[in-house]
Write a structure and sequence with these properties.
single chain; 328 residues; alpha/beta; six-stranded mixed beta sheet; two-stranded parallel ribbon; 11 helices; 10% strand
Length: 328
């Protein structure tokens, strides 16, 4: 099988500057992106546009990813399959990872595995934070040597299951020897990129500090209130994913209520404060832990929604061209 190497350093720089600029903009896609990139999955961590999986297989793989995400904060994996030629696959996967917000906000720990059935090519895009643990060479090995043979044989679910296991095993091992460290990136990219990266970082820190102050205030008002570590983390993720209030809250509520009547599912509501969020979280923690569960119509490009509902979607970024892939 042929190898798909990682982009050159110059190409990585261009991709990072483009991705960082997008991260500074409001969390909606531009019209140009909307025409080229699909909306994230309405639920779960997998968008199987190529119809490689049965419903049961997709459900089992989603559960496996959710389980792995509970075991480590080093990686958040999402998967996209397509029958349509996306063009340059490494660039496409990098853009899609950014657009979807794969990974946790501020952690840059996302990975996006894209399978192009038309071009019979795969690419595992690795954000810079995850790249500290999953190197480009490891990403290429997973895409080419682990996943590739299964795809050739048409054993799609088995190949994805094996690949998920390898991704998280690599993430939980020692730091990758050729992972991109943040300090190294800043030193290499210079002043402009450093300013962009700093702006993203401080935006997250600002939201995080405000969320923590809300939790401290809630405990001061309710001395018996206990906020476990996982609740603390989940609220920060939720607050960052929903740091901007909907333009028309009443209109959004009507739309969500109508979609719930149609689907029988429950969807994430906007909560302006920790005190408003807490009762919602206690009843339905799975949809208020920062991974918004919304109807497909509200997670499409330009709808104003931020992220998908899977546990690998938390407003992440840092996709600068890292990763590896191959052909099958």
């Amino acid at each position: 099988m042929q190898q798909t190497g990682s982009p050159s350093p110059r190409k990585r720089l261009a991709s990072l500057l483009a991705g960082s600029a997008l991260a500074l903009a409001p969390l909606t896609l531009s019209a140009a992106w909307a025409a080229d990139l699909p909306a994230p999955p309405a639920s779960g961590n997998i968008l199987d546009a190529a119809d490689l999986l049965t419903d049961e297989q997709e459900q089992n793989l989603n559960k496996l990813i959710d389980q792995k995400n509970q075991e480590t904060d080093r990686a958040r994996l999402a998967i996209y399959t397509t029958k349509q030629d996306p063009g340059d696959l490494p660039d496409y996967a990098t853009q899609l990872g950014t657009a979807w917000g794969v990974g946790d906000a501020g952690a840059d720990n996302g990975l996006l595995l894209v399978i192009d059935m038309e071009g019979r090519e795969t690419f595992l895009a690795v954000a810079d934070g995850a790249g500290q643990y999953v190197s480009d060479s490891e990403a290429q090995t997973i895409a080419q040597e682990v996943l590739g043979p299964y795809l050739t044989e048409g054993k799609y679910a088995a190949g994805l299951e094996a690949s998920i296991g390898e991704v998280y095993q690599a993430a939980q091992s020692e730091e990758a020897d050729d992972g991109l460290l943040i300090a190294g990136i800043v030193a290499t990219l210079g002043t402009v990129s450093a300013m962009i990266g700093a702006a993203i970082y401080w935006d997250y820190r600002k939201v995080k500090r405000a969320a923590e102050e809300e939790m401290r205030q809630a405990q001061a008002e309710n001395p018996g209130l206990s906020i476990p570590e996982d609740m603390h983390r989940d609220y920060i993720k939720y607050r960052y994913a929903n740091r901007t209030a909907p333009a028309n809250l009443d209109e959004q509520e009507e739309e969500l209520a109508e979609e719930e009547r149609k689907s029988g599912e429950s969807y994430t509501r906007y909560a302006p404060s920790f005190n408003a969020w807490l009762p919602l979280y206690l009843v339905s923690p799975q949809i208020y832990a920062g991974d918004n569960h919304l109807p497909a119509s509200m997670v499409s490009a330009g709808s104003g929604s931020s992220f998908s509902s899977g546990s690998s979607f938390g407003g992440g970024g840092g996709f600068s061209g890292g990763g590896g892939g191959g052909r099958f």
